[in-house]
Amino acid sequence: MNNRITKMLFTFILASWMTTFTVHAAEVRSPGTSAQTEKMAKPAADKPVVAEEHAVDINTASAEELSEAMNGVGIKKAQAIVKYRQEFGPFNSIEQLQNVPGIGPSLLERNRGRIKW
Question: S-S: 55 plus which of 83, 85, 116, 117, CB 3.0-4.6 Å?
Answer without folding.
Answer: 116
